[in-house]
Design a protein that fits this description.
single chain; about 250 residues; alpha/beta; eight-stranded parallel β-barrel; 11 helices; 8 strands; about 15% strand
Length: about 250
């Protein structure tokens, strides 16, 4: 089964817009779990614009599903990850001025900085994922660095779909397919995410090498209109349909 990780960051974004305790991202994580999510993803940013340290404390204590902690490679975040020991850490690029993650890590250029983080997290028994573009150089460096997982950035593919640029959609999708195949050949576990919607998820879910999709902003947005349980259940159904239609045995 292609796993579905639900990112609950933007429940915290809404909470933080006004302050206080509502809406509660941990409650959202519980509902996601009840609706078929296989894991919970949360990005603890350096500026704490959405998820906070206390949210991570509670997610670790109160949620049974595996937690995928997205974070920048900084000493502060490393200390937090080593203290909590989540199931997985996904190292992501982070700029304070960005609204959302704008692309994959350039791990080829940042190898010397990133390698010690990968090593220390791995030694602590935490699965390490690197959020990268579907580029053969980046994939080769991920293998050499010792990460067990990569997450392919699907943002450009989704942006092309939103523009209605079918040629660009096909090009980005082909790159993602080639990247997933190359990563699988190198023994890496392959995940994907960023910007996926009901309209864009099925071609990605049909890539046979993928084992996990992480989806957040769209699901939280849909939850406003249909409720989180139905939003997650619908996304799960589309993922299953895509795998069945592609003839992928689960």
């Amino acid at each position: 089964m292609l796993r579905l990780g639900v990112n609950i960051d933007h429940v915290a974004t809404i909470r933080n817009a006004r302050g206080g305790m509502h809406p509660d991202p941990v409650r959202a994580a519980r509902q996601a779990a009840e609706s078929g999510a296989d894991g919970i993803t949360a990005h603890l940013r350096e500026d704490r614009r959405h998820i906070t340290d206390s949210d991570i404390d509670r997610l670790m204590a109160e949620i049974d599903l595996p937690l995928n902690l997205e974070m920048a490679a900084t000493p502060e975040m490393l200390e937090i990850a080593l203290r909590h020991k989540p199931h997985a850490v996904c190292l992501v690029p982070e700029k304070r001025e960005e609204r959302t993650t704008e692309g994959g890590l350039d791990i080829a250029a940042g190898h010397n900085h990133l390698a010690p983080y990968v090593r220390q997290l791995d030694e602590a028994g935490i699965r390490v994922s690197l959020f990268i573009e579907a580029d053969p150089v980046q994939i080769a460096v991920a293998e050499a660095m010792g990460a067990s997982v990569i997450e392919l950035h699907t943002g450009a593919y989704c942006e092309a779909a939103a523009r209605g640029d079918t040629e660009a959609v096909a090009g980005h999708l082909e790159l993602l397919k080639i990247g997933a195949s190359e990563a699988f050949r190198r023994g890496l576990e392959v995940h994907a995410g960023h910007g996926l919607t009901y309209d864009t998820v099925k071609p990605i879910a049909a890539i046979p090498e993928l084992l996990e999709l992480n989806i957040g902003h769209f699901l939280i947005g849909e939850a406003i209109f249909r409720g989180l349980r139905e939003a997650v259940t619908t996304m799960r159904g589309l993922i299953v349909e895509a795998r069945d239609e592609a003839g992928i045995v689960t």
